[in-house]
From TrEMBL:
Keyword list, A-Z: Cobalamin biosynthesis, Oxidoreductase
Organism: Xenorhabdus anantnagensis
Listed InterPro entries: Precorrin-6x_reduct
Record Pfam families: CbiJ
Pathway(s) of this molecule: Cofactor biosynthesis; adenosylcobalamin biosynthesis
UniProt cross-references to NCBIfam families, sorted A to Z: precor6x_red, PRK08057.1-1
EC number(s) stated in the UniProt entry for this protein: 1.3.1.106
First and last residue of the signal peptide: none
GO molecular function: oxidoreductase activity
Protein name: Cobalt-precorrin-6A reductase
Length: 259
């Protein structure tokens, strides 16, 4: 079996679409995802899927052992630590790195109901002053941080329906009335009905872009008069020798056409 020379990091929908592009182009690759859920999301791709989190040292050893000649970082826009580890490993090995940037809609969204913040602490502080029933559509990874900063409030969490995530919700002290285990994508109409159903008074989300259904989350808030707090993306740009940034899937397709 031919050993793939391109390694992709990312359990996002963008990463899967990049894999599909490579399948169509006949390019050999391997995909790394952190969890079995990420592997499920990538079902149907032709490349090998590697499951498990890696720190910089382990990542360096793995890429060297596999004789990887190019890395594509298509991880989640908020996965700062992972991206930093990828940069470190690639620079240690002098392996070219393609950093995929998911396009953002945040600069086009301005409204009195929308509150843009830089940290979880700021998001919770603003939310605590706007209502009691606070809906999180931020995923489960940092759920414990939100719960800690929102003591005294009713935290409602929309999360993926996996045993691991549900156990995390329970460990954070959330009851069955506070957990909504659903998998997107969700339309704006669905979100509007959902916000009304769970009687949310404030919604906290991330600047997830088109792939993350950002507009579909925000637009119903505006029509319902529901305050929406947006945790903006980290502003760290991973630049340096051997790193190429690619903005959006169309640009990635053009790049892959020359691989």
């Amino acid at each position: 079996m031919k050993r793939p020379l391109i390694h992709i990091f990312g359990g996002t929908s963008d990463a899967r679409q990049i894999c599909v592009m490579m399948d169509i182009a006949g390019i050999d690759y391997c995909l790394s995802v952190a969890t079995p859920t990420g592997a499920q999301q990538a079902t149907g791709i032709r490349g090998e899927i590697v499951i498990g989190r890696m720190e910089a040292e382990g990542m360096t050893e793995y890429l060297q052992k596999q004789e990887v000649r190019m890395v594509i970082d298509a991880s989640h826009p908020y996965a700062e630590r992972l991206s930093q580890n990828i940069v470190s490993a690639c620079q240690t090995l002098s392996v070219p790195l393609i950093r995929y940037i998911r396009p953002s809609d945040i600069d086009a969204v301005e409204h009195p109901l929308i509150h843009k913040v830089a940290t979880i602490e700021q998001a919770c502080e603003v939310a605590a002053n706007l209502g009691t029933r606070i809906l999180l559509t931020t995923g489960s990874k940092q759920l414990a941080d939100y719960v800690t900063h929102l003591k005294g409030k009713t935290v409602l969490a929309r999360v993926l329906p996996t045993a691991e995530v549900l156990a995390m919700c329970e460990s954070c002290g959330l009851s069955v009335d506070q957990i909504f285990a659903l998998k997107g994508p969700f339309s704006a109409d669905f979100n509007r009905a959902f916000y009304q159903y769970c009687q949310a008074e404030v919604m906290i989300t991330k600047e997830s872009g088109e792939q993350g259904g950002f507009k579909e989350k925000v637009e119903p808030c505006l029509s319902l008069g529901l305050p929406c707090i947006v945790l903006c993306r980290p502003r760290h740009q991973f630049e340096g020798e051997g790193i190429t940034q690619v903005n959006g899937l169309e640009a990635m397709a053009r790049l892959l056409a020359n691989v």
